[in-house]
């Protein structure tokens, strides 16, 4: 082990240090000056972005570098996903600050926990061995469990934290079990070595295929695709909106990375087997997600089911197992994180007076209260529904193309039909915003940084759609094999 | 031919960015919003006139082409260009862009800036549909224009507006996603999104049939063809006047344009073998929907059904070409059918737009669209009666008006394909006259029916300007269709060359 290995993982070390700094700084701060913690966290993320961008490790045509006995890998995909994790987390923290202040929850634990969760996300993104995968996963999960119960006085929050913890532990157990089988069959924990061994063993090895089933189940749980989606609506609903905002965005990026590292990096030779499983999961997710979302009157639950269907779409991108397919899925998941951040940000924007805005009816007549925020929400909904020219359309289009690439035209047709079903409940939100009379006339007041962030986030829905070329190119070119 | 002034981009983006500018005017400055919207729409119309002047109608090639990168990873380009099919439709769009702004001047009082902005943005997107030569770009414009229309119907519409607008949106969205799958398939086959490159792409008959059905799903809903027309009467009845006008005058034409740009040249063999399907549906629309129109109590519904019936002529005119090939082996008669379909599209744009504006004039005064609430309007509104009767006559296909030219050309062409096609199509002259003239009798003439009609004021200068402009257009195309037909002559010949050659 030498210094250059530490440099490969410099962003991770930086976030680790800053999480500890945030934790300690709070001890010396009076409660009314906690804004400093917020600024410190934002600065930590900005600086992490600089470190990640400056990390010039593949100067001479090296695609990826590994460190710490090949347990850690850094490649273009890892860098892109990490950068978007920071960016999304900046949005999340900006929205959350307002929420936490409104509800008397503005404590520095929130920042410590999200930073540690981010560290887990980064580890997962850069994992190159089963141990690192598990380490990162648990770091994200444990921080998330604690965050869901962040409001200690809320019985609903504690209940959903419990539910999340029990189900999450079970999923981790499944994943560990699968990993142990893979280890038993291949004799290695390092993903590349596993991949070689799997290719040699072929598809006849029953132990491997069994291990694969458990791996897929674990990934499915973390992504939140049906039939492993049960925790999503309850956790999204029970957690404080700021926490829902967090767990619906940044960890999804990591879940995608985990799917790629394990499915392609470790068991790529079993493509035909996991493709079948993913087809089943994708269809079920799009079906359950879209139809169940129609019936919700609570917008947090509606967005929860919409997440399930979005993750079904992400799976479509994984199906062909080609660089283009994985690039499409990555594009989708990044776009989803941005859309979801804006969606929950709007919920926080409408919250206040000691109660969360979580009924769909809270959006009634938003256009008459504030035309600009109404337009932002409408753009987010149009983007989630996949209407061009919003960015969500390009994401849907790419993964549908991936499904056709994989020779699954029937699945593509099914996907577009489900997206029409989904359009209904997104349109319903637009309808509430524009066609209905407001229930209350109170003007919307938010801090300047919140307003700027949500405006930027809304404009991104349109801007990334109209100028979609560069982000698509970045995502597709992040994969090469 | 590359044009350095980027005229087509201006035609698309001036209205869209102008619409955003109108949004900035805000709710409190409605007058600013109105004048700014009028200015933007007028500029767009002037730009389209210079497009017409610069267009070389002797060439079938795409003109005013613009080419730029968009999504390089997938070979998607910002590629614009116009031919003889697009230019008349673009002019129709910008012309109505001005008219709807004027028509909504006083009748819209709520959220004026958003109303004007929605129409301007929609105008830019519709021009984009007619210019796009890259299939992805086409699809984006094609879908994006639904959103402003959704808001227009839902925000300024009638009592059942929410039902109508969601039905409108989901119907058209469902149709177009099947087309998207077809487009992706074509891209994977050809490696490019250039629509014109797809014309030369060899495709098996089975693949062509699937593609044809995918396109049919998108465009049949848009036209709309029987039996997927049911969204149209609802949308028309609930939409504000401007919404109905744009819907009838422009959006329906995008369906017909889609057949010309995609279905026929990309899947010619499938079109030839499935032409019976489209012709049957068109004739059902012409005859059956004509009867349905006769039974309507609501003026807007009546015009909506009459639209469906008239649009049946467009699809008929396009698809009888194959029957004519089979019978005569040449393209001479087929050209008349296609040109008739195009003339019918333009003419129907003028007439249906004018009729919806007429209903709007009455609705603004009496707040009713029911026929039974009127009678003897001519007594109190003589000028209005003059225009309304003119447009209804044109609607029934009176020679000398634009309504006659397109229908006549299509009927004449269908004789060469099959006598019974021509016979059924000819029925429309009777049915159209029946429902149009009966409407004249019940609404315009007769004794003054009630106190509301007694109190009516005749049209003001603003309304007279709008209706007068349309009356001139209807008569001009009716009496002197030659410039319009010549504009598309070369493009029609090229289209027929494409579709007569088998691609299998």
Structural notes for this entry:
The complex is a heterodimer of chains A (481) and B (504). Chain A has helices at residues 3-8, 10-25, 35-54, 76-102, 109-125, 130-148, 155-186, 191-201, 206-223, 231-238, 241-247, 250-266, 271-294, 299-318, 323-350, 366-369, 371-385, 391-405, 409-435, 448-466, 469-476, and strands at 65-67, 72-74. In chain A, helix 5 (109-125) runs antiparallel to helix 6 (130-148), helix 7 (155-186) runs antiparallel to helix 10 and helix 9 runs parallel beside helix 13. Chain A has a two-stranded antiparallel ribbon with strand order 1-2. In chain A, a hairpin with a 4-residue loop joins strand 1 (65-67) and strand 2. Chain A is mostly helical. Chain A contains 21 helices and 2 strands. The mean pLDDT of chain A is 91. The longest helix of chain A has 32 residues, at 155-186. The radius of gyration of chain A is 21 Å and the shape is globular. In chain B, strand 1 and strand 2 (76-82) form a beta hairpin. Chain B has helices at residues 7-25, 30-54, 86-107, 112-131, 135-144, 146-156, 161-190, 195-199, 205-222, 231-238, 241-266, 268-273, 275-294, 299-328, 332-366, 377-380, 382-395, 402-417, 419-444, 451-454, 461-479, 482-500, and strands spanning 63-71, 76-82. With 504 residues, chain B is mostly helical. The model of chain B has no long low-confidence stretch (mean pLDDT 89). In chain B, helix 1 (7-25) packs antiparallel against helix 4 (112-131), helix 4 packs parallel to helix 11 (241-266) and helix 14 (299-328) packs antiparallel against helix 15. In chain B, strands 1-2 form a two-stranded antiparallel sheet. Chain B contains 22 helices and 2 strands. Chain A binds chain B through residues 367, 371, 382, 387-389, 393-394, 397, 400-401, 404-405, 409, 412-413, 416-417, 419-420, 423-424, 427-428, 430-431, 434-435, 468-469, 472-473, 476-477, and chain B through 26-27, 69-74, 76, 111, 114, 139-140, 143-144, 146-147, 150-151, 154-155, 161-162, 165-166, 169-170, 173-174, 177-178, 180-181, 184-185, 187-188.
């Amino acid at each position: 082990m030498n210094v250059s290995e530490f440099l490969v993982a410099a962003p991770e070390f930086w976030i680790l240090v800053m999480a500890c700094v945030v934790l300690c700084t709070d001890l010396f701060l009076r409660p009314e000056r906690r804004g400093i913690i917020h600024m410190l966290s934002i600065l930590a993320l900005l600086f992490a972005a600089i470190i990640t961008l400056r990390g010039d490790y593949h100067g001479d045509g090296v695609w990826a570098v590994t460190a710490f006995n090949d347990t850690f890998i850094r490649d273009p995909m890892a860098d892109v996903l990490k950068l978007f994790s920071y960016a999304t987390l900046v949005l999340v923290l900006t929205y959350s600050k307002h929420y936490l202040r409104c509800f008397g929850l503005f404590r520095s634990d929130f920042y410590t926990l999200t930073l540690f969760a981010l560290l887990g996300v980064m580890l997962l993104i850069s994992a190159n061995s089963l141990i690192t995968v598990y380490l990162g996963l648990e770091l994200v999960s444990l921080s998330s469990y604690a965050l869901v119960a962040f409001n200690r006085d809320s019985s609903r929050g504690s209940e959903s934290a419990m539910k999340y913890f029990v189900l999450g532990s079970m999923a981790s157990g499944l994943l560990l079990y699968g990993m142990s089988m893979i280890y038993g069959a291949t004799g290695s924990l390092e993903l590349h070595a596993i991949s070689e061994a799997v290719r040699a063993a072929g598809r006849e090895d029953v132990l491997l295929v069994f291990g694969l089933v458990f791996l897929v189940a674990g990934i499915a749980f973390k992504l939140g695709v049906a039939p492993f989606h049960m925790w999503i609506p309850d956790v999204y609903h029970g957690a404080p909106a700021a926490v829902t905002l967090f767990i619906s965005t940044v960890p999804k990026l990591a879940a995608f990375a985990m799917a790629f590292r394990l499915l392609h990096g470790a068991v790529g030779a079993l493509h035909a087997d996991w493709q079948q499983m993913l087809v089943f999961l994708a269809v079920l997710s799009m079906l359950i997600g879209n139809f169940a979302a129609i019936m919700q009157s609570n917008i947090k639950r509606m967005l929860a089911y919409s997440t399930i269907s979005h993750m079904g779409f992400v799976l479509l991108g994984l199906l062909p197992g080609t660089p283009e397919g994985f690039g499409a899925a990555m594009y989708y998941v990044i776009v989803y994180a941005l859309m979801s951040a804006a969606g929950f940000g709007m919920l926080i924007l409408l919250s206040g007076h000691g109660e969360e805005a979580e009924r769909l009816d809270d959006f009634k007549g938003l256009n008459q209260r504030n035309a600009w925020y109404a337009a932002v929400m409408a753009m987010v909904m149009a983007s989630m529904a996949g209407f061009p020219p919003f960015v969500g359309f390009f994401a849907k289009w790419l993964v549908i193309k991936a499904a056709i690439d994989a020779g699954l035209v029937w699945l593509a047709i099914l996907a577009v039909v489900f997206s029409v079903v989904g359009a209904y409940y997104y349109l319903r939100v637009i309808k509430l915003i524009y066609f209905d009379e407001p229930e209350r006339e109170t003007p919307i007041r938010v801090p300047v940084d919140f307003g700027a962030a949500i405006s930027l986030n809304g404009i991104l829905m349109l801007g990334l759609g109209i100028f979609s070329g560069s982000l698509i190119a970045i995502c597709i070119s992040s994969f090469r094999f | 031919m590359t044009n350095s002034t980027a005229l087509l981009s201006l035609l698309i983006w001036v209205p869209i960015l102008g619409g955003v500018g109108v949004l900035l005017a805000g709710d409190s400055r409605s007058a600013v919003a109105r004048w700014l919207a009028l200015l933007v729409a007028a500029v767009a119309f002037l730009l389209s006139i210079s497009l017409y002047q610069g267009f070389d109608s002797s060439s079938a090639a795409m003109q005013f082409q613009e080419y730029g990168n968009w999504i390089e990873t997938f070979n998607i380009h910002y590629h614009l260009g116009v031919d003889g099919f697009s230019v008349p439709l673009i002019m129709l769009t910008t012309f109505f862009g001005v008219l709807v702004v004027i028509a909504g001047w006083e009748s819209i009082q709520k959220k004026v800036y958003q109303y004007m902005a929605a129409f301007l943005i929609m105008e830019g997107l519709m021009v984009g549909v007619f210019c796009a030569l890259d299939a992805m770009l086409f699809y984006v414009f094609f879908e994006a224009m639904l959103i402003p229309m959704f808001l227009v119907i839902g925000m300024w519409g009638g009592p059942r507006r929410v039902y109508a607008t969601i039905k409108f949106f989901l119907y058209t969205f469902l149709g177009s996603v099947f087309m998207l799958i077809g487009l992706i398939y074509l891209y994977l086959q050809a490696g490019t999104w250039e629509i014109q490159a797809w014309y030369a792409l060899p495709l098996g008959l089975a693949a062509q049939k699937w593609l044809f059905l995918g396109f049919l799903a998108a465009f049949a809903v848009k036209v709309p063809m029987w039996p997927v027309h049911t969204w149209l009467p609802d949308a028309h009845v609930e939409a504000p006047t401007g919404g109905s006008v744009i819907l009838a005058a422009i959006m329906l034409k995008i369906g017909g344009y889609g057949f010309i740009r995609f279905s026929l040249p990309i899947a010619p063999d499938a079109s030839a073998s499935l032409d019976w399907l489209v012709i049957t549906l068109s004739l059902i629309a012409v005859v059956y929907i004509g009867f349905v129109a006769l039974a309507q109590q609501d003026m807007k519904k009546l015009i909506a059904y009459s639209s469906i019936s008239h649009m049946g002529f467009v699809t008929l005119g396009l698809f009888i070409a194959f029957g004519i090939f089979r019978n005569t082996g040449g393209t001479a008669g087929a050209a008349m059918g296609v040109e008739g379909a195009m003339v019918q599209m333009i003419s129907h744009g003028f007439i249906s737009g004018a009729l919806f504006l007429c209903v709007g004039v009455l609705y603004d005064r009496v707040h009713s669209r029911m026929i039974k609430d009127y009678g003897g309007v001519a007594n109190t509104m003589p000028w209005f009666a003059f225009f309304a009767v003119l447009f209804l006559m044109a609607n029934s296909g009176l020679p000398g008006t634009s309504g006659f030219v397109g229908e006549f050309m299509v009927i004449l062409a269908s004789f060469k394909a099959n006598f019974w096609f021509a016979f059924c199509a000819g029925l429309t002259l009777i049915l159209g006259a029946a429902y149009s003239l009966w409407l004249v009798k019940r609404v315009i003439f007769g004794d003054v029916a009630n106190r509301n009609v007694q109190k009516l004021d005749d049209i003001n200068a603003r309304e007279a300007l709008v209706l007068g402009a349309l009356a001139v257009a209807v008569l001009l195309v009716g009496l002197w269709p030659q410039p319009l037909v010549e504009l598309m002559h070369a493009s029609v010949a090229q289209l027929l060359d494409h579709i007569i050659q088998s691609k299998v």
